[in-house]
Structure formats: structure tokens, C-alpha cells
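Shift notes (night). Ran RyR/IP3R Homology associated domain-containing protein while the centrifuge was going.
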Amino acid sequence: MLEVQTNLAEEGAADLVVELVVNSHSSQNIFIEAVELGIALLEGGNSRIQEILYHKLTNNIDKAQKFFKVFFEKMQDAQLEIRMTVTVNTSDLTQRPSDDKDGLPSTADKPALPARAAKHVNKNGVVVTEEMKKDMDSAVTATVQAISAVRTEKNVGVLVEEEEPKLSPKIAVMDPILRCLQLFCENHNTDMQNLLRQQAGKTVYNLVSETLLFLDCICGSTTGGLGLLGLYINEHNVSLINQTLETLTEYCQGPYE
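Came back to this:
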């Protein structure tokens, strides 16, 4: 695999990753494909690919500024999306109609049973036998139960959809981004670690710090701690949280002795 990766890079694949990222502003799909290509080239910790990318990004300051700006803005967009999603979910929870303890619609929603005809004669003068009254009562009861069952089934389906949201594209894209940045620094590459933290140029895009801020955001924290982790972590974002931790670990690991 290393040989194939190196051959592709020497034919321009590594340079292509940088160029595609820089020119991906108008297309999320192009950006994702570029990042996935970078991951494929760097998979396994290919130091030759790291070297090619490092020289590409340090020999052209303007290109490097544009490259890291794209990643920086994607990270900020993801954080904003998380904050907006959490706000909406919290609002939805407070606006849900209250149901009975057994999950069925409240009695206020149920149609009232018709009044029994007094002395077997209704207001129109039609004679109603006791047997007919029992049949009518049974029919109404069955109808009420059927309506309740349909409403309950519908409400349960809605609740399942609301309580198990999947990650939006702006947040989901962080997984390949963080994996790619992790591979940039694989094998304790201090040059890449420093480059992700500080670049030459007018603007510094500190992707290390931004990754930590993303972890804070997805864990519901503003202080560097785990915050209200139990309210934020779920089956859809736990993999992304793990990837964030793995990337942060690779950022700060020292060189081999």
C-alpha cells in the first residue's frame, strides 16, 4: 500500500488534494472527496506523503493560507450548527404536548359518549330498546379505542424521530476532517503538528485550538471540561467524539526517542 500511495503522490495526487481543498468553496462534495483522497494517501502513516504535503504548504504561503482557512471555517460552521441544533432540540422538548402517564392522548381529546335516551325514547320520539343502546355504546367505545391507538402509534413514531436525530452534513463532515488532520501528524510528526498550530502569513489558523473548541462544543462545555456530557452524547455523535479525542492525542504526542 505504501508503494501505491507514494507512486500516486509523486504523480501529483498529494498536490491535487491541496488544490481541490483550496478550490472547494462552492462544493461540499468536492471538499469531502479531496479530504478522503488525502486520507487514502496518508493511511498507515506514510511519511513520504507527509513530507510532500508539508513542503507544498510551506513553500507557498498564499496557498497554505487558503488551505487552512477552508478547514478552519468548516470547523467553525460545525460548532455553530451544533449550538443551533441543541437550542432547537431543547425548545422542542419544552413545547411537546403533555400526555397521560400511559402515553395515550388525554381524556380531553376523546369524544364524549352520547347521552342515554331516557325511558327508551330519544328527543325525536324514536323508540330505542335497551339492546340497541348497548350496541351503540359498544360501537362508540370501540371507536374511541381505535382513535386512541392510532394517535398513540403516530405520536410514538414522531417521538422516535425527534429523539434520535442524525448528524447534519455540516457536523458529519468533521469526521473525515479530523481523521485527515490526525494522519497529517501520524508518527509524531512535529513539523506537521506545528504547522497545524501556526502558519507563516498574515492570518494564523490554529486548527489544534479549534479542534479543542469543537470538542468542548459537542460535549456541551465552555470551560474545557466535559460539561453536560450526558445530555449531548448519543449513538450518532459518539464516534465523532472518539475521533476528536484521537486527533487531539496525535496533535500533542512527542517524537519517538
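The longest helix spans residues 61-95. The chain has two domains: 2-90+174-252, 104-163.
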